[in-house]
Amino acid sequence: MYRSVIISLFLLLISFSSYSHEMTPTYPKFKSSYMDGLLVTEMEIFNKRRDVAYYEIGVFDKDFEPIPFVSSYSVYKVDYLKKVSVEIYVRKKDEPSITYICSRSKVLKQRVSNTSVTSTICSKVRRGK
Amino acid sequence: MKKLILISAAIMTASYALADAPITGSVQSRCVVTTDTPGVYGNPNAYTLTTDPSDGGVLPIVRFDVTLADAYYAQITYPTEFTSSPSLSDTVTWTGSTEVSAVSDATGMGSYETDKTTFGETSQYDLTATGSTWFKTSSEATMGGNKAFPGGSYSATVEAKCIAQ
User: Fold this and answer.
1) Angle at the Cα of A46 from the Cα atoms of B25 and B20, rounded to 5 degrees
2) pLDDT digits (tens, 9 = 90+) for A77-119
3) What is the rounded average pLDDT of the residues B139-159?
4) Which one is the CATH code of B25-164: 3.40.50, 3.30.230, 1.10.486, 2.60.40?
5) What number is the ipTM of this complex?
6) B38, B40, B3, B19: which is closest to A105 by C-alpha?
7) Measured between alpha carbons, how far is A107 from A36 in angstroms, rounded to an integer?
8) B160 contacts in A (CB within 8 Å)?
9) Is the omega angle on the peptide bond into residue B86 within 30 degrees of 0, that is, cis?
10) What CATH number did the domain enclosing A44 receive?
11) Inter-chain CB proximity A116 and B38 less than 8 Å
12) If contacts are CB pairs under 8 Å, which of residues 12-41 in chain B contact chain A?
């Protein structure tokens, strides 16, 4: 009896103490935008990390060298258990070298614990139809 | 008669409105990075900070959940600097490592640890099966010349990356 209560409490503690970060789609595609010479794609970030409220977006080539892009912000505020859609615009001429779109958690300096974890999720851009 | 028709129509409309509560959703492949346990540094002697549990530390544990096999890499990097600390009088030497702590599918994920590649401070795992994998990272900071770490709070960051293949 006590054993099952202890196990339940332990599992409850684990479920409350875990924090996660999601970004979809895994394989985004760029499509023509309403602006000439620019392509657009849309990503979605879901924040299940209580300790994080900001995520930085980046666009990279195959060697993780940054590629210029435009979005409403480079760092998005995503409250706990909220989803945010992010539109990313890139130049058509840069499209062949774009390989990854990444979101990276930003831990506030005053909230850093003894050893915190920075989570990064990188989606891989797919080309063609 | 007219009243009866009106009442019937009202009931039909009401039942229609009550029945119409759609729930929509979509399923797509994803990688979820979860901090299961934030780490804690123990201080076994004046010049060492370590996450080793035998020295009073706690190992940080990160979980990767993937819903598509052979689609992601997990890259975990142990810290090489403090994100915040008191002013330090000497250089700090960093060591660390990452290893698989637990898996949800012993058959499909059993070779993750032996198949990992390590470059610098980073360990890379090819997530070849769907499910959850827990990784634990150890970190140790040693003050140069065996000088004592000054009093205060210290923090460092483990980087956990999930990269689509």
Assistant:
1) 25
2) 999 999 999 999 999 999 999 999 999 998 776 655 566 889 9
3) 91
4) 2.60.40
5) 0.79
6) B38
7) 37
8) 117-120
9) no
10) 2.60.40.10
11) yes
12) 28-41
